[in-house]
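@channel sequence for tomorrow's demo:
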Amino acid sequence: MAVQANAPGGPISDAAAGQSAERRVSVSKVWEELRRSPIIPLLILIIFLIGPAIFANVVAPHGPVDNHLDKAKLPPAWVGDQRMEQVIVQRARADSEVSINNVKHLLASGGATLVDVDGNGEANLGDSLVTVIPGGSMEFPLGTDKLGRGVLSRLLHGARVSLMVSCLAILLGGFLGTSLGMLAAFRGGLVDGIVMRIVDIKLAFPSILLALTLVAAVGSGYVTVIAVIALLLWARYARVVRGDALAIKQRDFIDRARVAGATNMRIMLKHIFPNVFNTVIVLATLEVGHVIILEATLSYLGAGIQPPAPAWGVMAADGRELITSAWWIFLFPCLAIVLTVLSMNLLGDWLRDRLDPRLRNV
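C-alpha cells (generated this afternoon):
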C-alpha cells in the first residue's frame, strides 16, 4: 500500500506554521506583560521596606540602640585602613642634644630646613607621625554612627517605623477622606459646599508648614506624627472620591436601587464604595512615598520621631554634621528614602494603569 507524502504547502505544514505563530504570539505577550510589570520596584520594596520591617529582629546584626563607643564612626566594611601622616616640627640648635653633624645630615637629605644661617644655627627638624585610622569590618557592614550604633541595624529597624507610620496614617486619612467625599457627593447641597470649602482651605496650606505647626502645638511622638499626617492626607481622598462618586451617582443602577427601596447608607456602601475602591487603592499606593517623605522631614527637623528611635529622618539628622568625615551615616538613610519613594511611585503608576478602565487599553 503506497503512502503519499504531503506537499510542502500541504495541510500538515500549514497547521505547524499556525502553531508556531501562536507560540510566538504567546511568548511575545508574556514578555510584554513582564516588561510592563513593576518587577524592579517590587524587589526594591521587598528588600528595603517590607522585608526589613517584618524580619528586622531576625536579620539585624545588632540592636538599633546598642552602643559601641570604642567603635564609633567606623566606615563600611569595604573601606580599608587609612594612613594619616602628620609632620611634627622640632627646633634644633648646634649646642642642643641633637649634634650639629646630625643637623647637617638632615639638611643635606631634606629632613630639616635651615632657619638662621648666620646666627645661632637653628634648624627645623620635621618628624613624621603616622596615624592609622581603622577601616570597616563585617561586624558592621555599613559602618557605625557617632555613638557606635550599627547603621545597617538602624536602617532595618527604621523601615519598620516608616512602614508603620505610613500604613496607619494612610488608613486613617483614607477612611476619613473617603467617607467625607462620598457623603459630600451623595448628599450635595450644603454638606457638599461645607466639605469642599474645608478641603480648599486645607490644600491652600503647604503640607510641611502645617505639619510643623500642628506638631509644635501638640508635641512630638509616634501618635502625634501619625495623627498629623492623617489630617494632611484626608483632603486629597475627599476631593478625588467626591469626583468619582458624583459620576457614579448619575448611573442607572443607583436609580434602580432607590426604586428597590435601598437606604442611603446601603447605596453608598454597596453601590458607590465598590466603584471608587480602585481609585482609593491607587491613591493610597501613591501616598506611601509622600508619607515617608513627610515623616522623614519631620524627624530630620526634630519635630517627628525622637532619638534614639531608628527612624530614617533621625539617622539623616545625626549624620548631617559629619557628612565630610563620616559620609555613610548620612548617605545610607537618604538612599533608602529615595529608593523606597521612587519604587512606590512607580508601583502606584502601574496600579493606576491596571485598575483605571480609562487607561487599561492605552
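heads up for whoever presents: The mean pLDDT is 77.
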